[in-house]
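Hi everyone, sorry if this is the wrong subforum. Our group has a chain we'd like a structural model of before ordering constructs, and none of us has done structure prediction before. Sequence below.
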Amino acid sequence: MAVLSIISRTASRRSVRALGVVAASAALALSASGNALACNISEFSAEAKCDGDNGVITVTDVDPAGIPATVTVYLKDGDKQVGQQTVKGSKDGTTVSFPVDWQPNTTYRIHVKADRYVDENIKPDVTTPSTPCKTEDTPSPTPSESSSTPSDETESPAPEPSTSAPAPSQPESTAPAAVPNDNAPSPAAGDSNLAETGANSNTGMIAGIAAALVVVGGGAVFFGMRRRGAKSGS
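Answer:
Right subforum, don't worry. Here is the predicted structure as tokens:
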């Protein structure tokens, strides 16, 4: 009985020790997993880029625990604060943007403060690109006098638009002009003027014949009366 009691006591002590080791291991595992889930600076990244013609600095938080973090951007030369925002991370990543009128090759310091887990800068610092986002419009070269437009002496004036309507074209099927008849008597020159004055009419000739007939008739009557008188006197 004494031997069994000793064996039982020994086994119970070993069980307690084993349980203690298991508990300690579990505590270490939970502690490690807690630290792994906690927010840390490696979950933050920053970048300087162009958004159209404007420059921005973006900060992305991929903390799956979603612990709110305050992000502050400083101009490293003089450590002047440029902007500050609060970001709540996510597994897919949450990004905040800081519009910055930055010059090329300018360095910025990004600081992150997340409760008791993070209070440090993102490494490395952010340096802007070597070219600006908005390029100045390059003026077009002014053409020299030799390559300019021709001088007034050689430049021909542009033709003025005609305001008159174009004359209608003659139809191709116009009837030919009438051929004059060579046998027909052509009117003498000046007929129209003579007709107006009466020189071309037969009035003069008729008047002369009438006058001659009147004279002849008068003579016949005269001689007839003389003959009658001579007969009556005899």
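For your construct planning: The beta strands are 44-51, 54-61, 68-75, 80-88, 94-99, 107-114, 118-121, 126-127. Residues 26-36, 173-180, 192-198 have pLDDT under 50 and may be disordered.
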